[in-house]
Amino acid sequence: MRQKSIKTPLFQAVAHLLRRRILLKELQPGEHVNEVTVSRELNLSRGPIRDAIKLLEKEGLVETFANGRTQVTGFTRDSFRDWMRIRLSLERLAIDEFAAKREAAAGRLDGLLELVRGMVALEGDPHRQDEAVELDLRFHSQLVAMSGNRTLVLLWESIYGPLTTIMELIARHYGDISRQTDMHRDIAERLLRRDYAGAADSLQAHIAEGEQTMLAALKL
Fold it and tell me: Which residues contact 175 (CB under 8 A, 6 or more apart)?
């Protein structure tokens, strides 16, 4: 079930590292993020550091002022919940878009169902949370891609970085894999039966449950 490893662009790897530190509160709100300091620490040129900071600005995790100073904005409980509402809205819209194009898009369900089968294969093994998280992310990415709406996909990809980092951080809190499998299976099977309203409701319940796990893991 594993995809071929794709080399992550350097600036995204740096952004992931800094994002992780912000979410873990190793970098506190108001703290200065210095390009030179990070460059020396990672033994990298300032180019990828600068690009990483720009990405984190778009995600709302840091802010750069007119004087060029960048400081951590942080990830509060309120900002996290705002972010989760946007995520839910985008994924529900993806289901609406899929429903509108159901005849042309029906074949795209195969990939979603294949991911669910991958989750089933992980059941009963509590040491494979990382793989379960990977499949979880791919499921939601595939769900959005099924919409066939390029603008929607681009908007969802703008939150993919924080989602990836958060999911990585909560892997040890993932709990019973079978619970996650059942929720993803229900969404996929409802789509297969063309019960789009039911699929959207199941998606909302799944994301709401995940939100509580994330809040606890991130101590927000």
Answer: 213
